[in-house]
Amino acid sequence: MRKVKLTEESRKGLLQELIKRSPGHYDTYEEIVSDIIQRIREEKDAALFSYTKEFDHCDVNVSNILVTEEEIDSAVDMLEPGFVAVMKKAADNIRAFHEKQVRNTWMDIREDGSILGQRILPIGRAGVYVPGGKAAYPSSVLMNVIPARVAGVAEIIMTTPPGADGSINPATLAAARIAGVDKIYRAGGAQAIAAMAFGTESIPKADKITGPGNIFVALAKKAVYGHVSIDSVAGPSEILVLADETANPRYVAADLLSQAEHDELASAILITTSEEVADRVEEEIRGFLPQLSRREIIEKSLEHYGYILLADSLSDAVEAANEIASEHLEILTRNPFEVMTKIRHAGAVFLGEHSCEPLGDYFAGPNHILPTNGTARFFSPLGVDDFVKKSSVISYSETALSSVHKDIELFARQEGLTAHENAMKVRFEAKQAD
Question: Is-catalytic flag, 328?
Answer without folding.
Answer: yes
